[in-house]
Design a protein that fits this description.
With 104 residues, this protein is an alpha+beta fold. It is 25% helix and 26% strand. The protein has a single domain (2-100), classed as Rossmann fold (3-Layer(aba) Sandwich). The chain has helices at residues 40-47, 69-75, 90-100; strands at 2-11, 14-24, 55-60.
Length: 104
Amino acid sequence: MIGISNITKKFMGVECLKDISVRFDRGDRVAITGPNGAGKTTLVCIILGYYYPDNGKVLINGFDPIRDRIEVLKKASYIPQLSPPIKLTVKDLILYVSKSSAID
């Protein structure tokens, strides 16, 4: 389970995430889409503990990604923002990723 509560992140005074709250449960398949600069990578980096949020909290299976980084990284994976070199619809891309990943 990934719980994100009231996450806010600023870079050089510019707010790129504002009061984001969401929960992902085991078995959920999630795709974060949006234009460049929307905050997708920033949110993922906060979830993985690469960035500190300015406000809010993230818990992954009860672990804090900053304080309990090793435990979090044992269970988390990240697919970079480069898409496969094939032309797919968003629906087909999600299907491709879900079938090609080792998620139970």
